[in-house]
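Recap from last week: sequence in, structure out.
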Amino acid sequence: MKLRKVSEITQRHSTGTQPAPRSHSECKTQRRPIFVAMSMHENYCVGTLPILISCNNHIYSTCRMAGCAERHQPVDEEKTVMGRFLRLAVLMLLCSAVAATGDPVWGQNENGVQSGPYRYSFSYTPIYQFETDLENGGRFEVSRHYLRFDVIRSFGRSLRMGLGLSYDFEKWNFDDLPTVAGATPWSSLHRPGVSLPVFYTFADSWTLGVTPTVEYSGESGAQFDESLIYGGIVSLAHPFSRDLFLGLGFGVFDELEDTSFFPFVIIEWTISEQLRVTNPLRAGPAGPAGLELVYAPADNWEIGVGGAYRTYRFRLNDKSAVPDGVGENEFLVTFLRLQRKIGARLTLDLAGGALFGGELSIENADGDKIGSDDYDPAPFFALTFAGMF
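Predicted structure tokens:
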């Protein structure tokens, strides 16, 4: 369903504009065209019909069912959110630094090869998605920050168990949307998550993997217990030769009034000393692991080209025009990356690519789709700093 203007739905209502009065009590109700599916800012609310009130150059909102107006001031949480994010990033990096102290490294011998029961890894990825046009008018850009920290422990030769921590932060900036007062669908999104991977090897090196996952996915201010996504990944893989590790898996997740299911392929195929095929991403609530062709022209350099399908849902806060509604971003991503190894334990990746077939959609709290809008191919640039100890 494409976006519809309120004016198209309410043509039988009269419209009018009156000068903004000096006091709130003198404010006059105005009906103006807004895009129903995109009116998700604190400045609006939904009853049987969105009604806007203009007073002293401010926009107030009410619902005809409620019969009252409430003034909502947009809150800039970016500084607070980024401060928390940076503190979390520093904490995780410090944990990695502690794990890296000593010679040899915990869990590794002097050559950087895993030798003990524990393995630690971390990564930090800032991504900038350049400004992109929406099909029905307006444009947007996104700044993303992804943080990962994992630890896994071996229990003999057959069993491995671990803990995975993740935190994703996205800052969306919309511009020139065809809405009153420049209202935006959402601004800051948060996705902290916890996973508990378990791998069991049996019967001639078959490996069964089970990874239960819980993730919060919501706009700033969204209700916590209504923003939880939970489910898991199940996989079965086998080394068919020294050069080919192959398997199949599937993911099932309860995602905010929706259940997602997807299959995926696990592959680590060494075609030659310089060429291999692998999975570039971690399968999870956002989708399967994708595929990547990697070329290693020298010992410390890699060039990779790949792609994946991604989709994620997030809860809106209860002050939006669709209280406790759900937003969704769906796209195909392709990328080209260049990696430089820094010693035996650290890597630095530069990547560029684009999102194709992108669609933003909005549902109400009951899971009924209100509207959607496609967006043009969206180029992006990313940097990843990662380490394993």
